[in-house]
Amino acid sequence: MLGTLIASGLSSLASMGLFATVAHLREDPIDPFWLAFAGAAPIVMAGPMVAYLLELLRRLARAKLELEELARRDSMTGLLNRRAFFEAAEAAIQRARRSSRPLTLLVLDADHFKSINDSYGHAAGDEALRLIARTLLAATRRSDVVGRIGGEEFAVLLDGAAPDEAALVAERIVSAVRLLDFERGGERVPLSVSAGLAVLEPGLDLDGLFSRADAALYAAKRAGRGRARRAEAEGPSTVRRRA
Prior knowledge:
It is flat, with a radius of gyration of 30 Å. The protein folds into 2 domains: 2-72, no CATH class; 82-230, 2-Layer Sandwich (Alpha-Beta Plaits), CATH 3.30.70. It has a 5-stranded mixed sheet with strand order 2-3-1-6-7, with helices on both faces. With 243 residues, the protein is of the alpha+beta class. It is built from 7 helices and 7 strands.
């Protein structure tokens, strides 16, 4: 593509020089200086033209990457959106299978979130979600996959994290959210999340992994919310497709 653009630009410049030369010859006697200028102009301008085309292509490539990244992000929290998270999770599962590395999924849900929207407005709810998102990023590594997959639901894929390590991460997230300083009208509004954990096992696909993590999340909700629960290995295999 670059070669085609450069060749096209040089060809256009050469054509312009030739046209100008012919037009000049039809009206005036041959001027050696004009012939030299008309012949050299395309060569002289080729450098700036190539530089311009290269800069234009660089800007277009950068804009394309920026648009692609924006399309992968949740506009409110900056986390991966639902689609991007599932795509990244599928890829992470394939890598984990090839390398036999452990992989643990956390599914988290903000507790009593509707009451925050009802009592303080949707702007307050949006701010609460952003605070939770920042807490997730602070508690995880750059290699982990973090996304917002629903209204007040988040997911984290812990790459290389064994079950016990993942449980500690989940507890750290739950505790950190509980300590968030979130106020409205001078009043502290309590925030909490419940979390469910599921470990990738042989024969378990992404849907099955989410099914187990969901079951653990609902167990945490039933146990009083604001806590984390780990799925049992023989947990439900019913698939609740999300992607």
